Amino acid sequence: MSVDPSSLAVTLGAAVGALVLGVDPQIEVEQAEAVSHTVQQSASRLLEGVSAAIESLPPEAQAPAEQVVTETSERLQNEIEVLLPDGAASHEEEVAESGNGETISAAEQVDVIEPSYSAAVTPMLSAAPSISPFTSTAPTVPIGAVAVFAPWLKKAGAICDGITAPVLAALYSVENSFRYGPTAPVSPAGALGPGQFMPGTWEIYGTDADGDGKADVLGVADPVMASGRLLCDDWDRIEQWKKDGRVVGDTLSLTLAAYNAGAGAVLRSGGMPAGLPDYENQTKPYVAKILAARPAFARMLSPFLALELPTEAHDLGRRVIGEAFRYIGLPYVWGGGNIEGPTGGGFDCSGLTSFALHAAAGIVLPRTSETQWHVGIEVPLDQARAGDLVFGNWQAGGPGHVGIYLGGGLMVHAPTTGDVVRIGEVFPDMRARRIV
Fold first, then answer.
1. What is the CATH number of the domain that holds 391?
2. What residue stretches are annotated with the NlpC/P60 domain (predicted)?
3. Is residue 106 classed as helix, strand or coil in its secondary structure?
4. Is there a domain that residue 127 lies in?
C-alpha cells in the first residue's frame, strides 16, 4: 500500500485529537478516512485505533507515522492546556469587571429556563494527560455514533447562525458521549438521553422531529433538534442581553454555559457564571471542553455536512431517502421491518428498503435483498442517482446486502447485527438498480 503523507497526517492527527478531546479514536479514524478517501483510495478502514493503523503501514513508513502522532499529540496538548480551569482566569476576570449585580425579575424567571441540565454529571476537564497514541482512558463512544447523529446534527445546526453542527456534536460528546436508547444512562439528577434533558425542559422543547409518533428523549432525532432549538433560543436571549448591557462575553461561550447552568446564571453573573463551586468546577470546564472539541468534530462531520442530494435528484428519490432518514440510529434487527415500519425494534437491510420505497412511492418490494435485486433495471454505479438501490455482498443466491444510494459514494443502510441504521460508504462490489 502506498502511503500519501497528507492523507496519513489527516487520519493520524484526527485520531490523536480524539484521544485528547475525549472521543473514541475509532470514531475519529473512521471519519477522518472518509475525508481522505479521495486521496488514498486503497487505504483500509482504520477501525482498530491508531496502533493498528501504524502497524498496517510498510516498515519504512512506521517511524514517520509515529513521529506524526507524537508531534500532533504535543501540539494538541499545548493548545488544550490554555483551556484548563487552573490556567484560564479570563472568564472570572471578565465577570468581576462587568457583573452588574442585577437580579432576575419574576417575569424573567418565567422566560429563562434554569437549570436546563444537571451540572452534577457534566464530565470534568482534567489536567492535560501525558498522551500515548496507543492507549486512551477517554469515555468510549459506539462506533459510528457520529454517522448516526450526523443528519440531525446538520439539520439542527441550520436552525440559527450561532449554533453549528460541530458545536452540537461537541456538546453531545461532553454531555453523554452520544449514548442513546433505553440503556442510555440517567444522571443522578434525572437528566435523560444523549442531550441530558431534565424532564421540565423536555416538556417545553421535546417534539416529534422524525415523525415516528412520539417525542423520544432517549432517541437521536428528537433530542438533537430540541437541543438546537434550546441553544438558539438562549443565543438570541444572550445577544439581546449584550445589546442591553446586561451581560458581556463571547455569545457562544455564554450560550453553552446556559445549557449547563441555565440562562439565569448567565444573567445574574453578567456573563460567564462564576463564584459558586458548580460554576467554577463544572460550568467553565464544560464550556472549555466543548470549544476545544469543536474543530475535531468539524473534521469528523465534514463528509456529512458536505452531503447534498444532487440537483438532478428527482423528488421521489428524495422522498425515499427522507423516509429512511427518519430511522437513522434505529438498531439493526435480523428480519426486522416491513412496509409498515420497524418490527422487533428495528430494521434489517431489506426491511429498511421495503419500508422506504413503500412509504415514499407505494411500491411493495419483495422481502429479501436477493429478491429485490430482480425489481427495476440495473444502472451503472457511476450513473446511480439519489434514491436508487445499491446491492452488494454477493453470494451464490445473489446480493446479501442492500442500501439506498445518496450520491457521492454514500448510502443509508442497516448494516449488520449490533449496528444501527446509518450513513456509510458504498461497498466496492456494489451494483445499482433503479426502482423509482
1. 3.90.1720.10
2. 314-436
3. helix
4. no
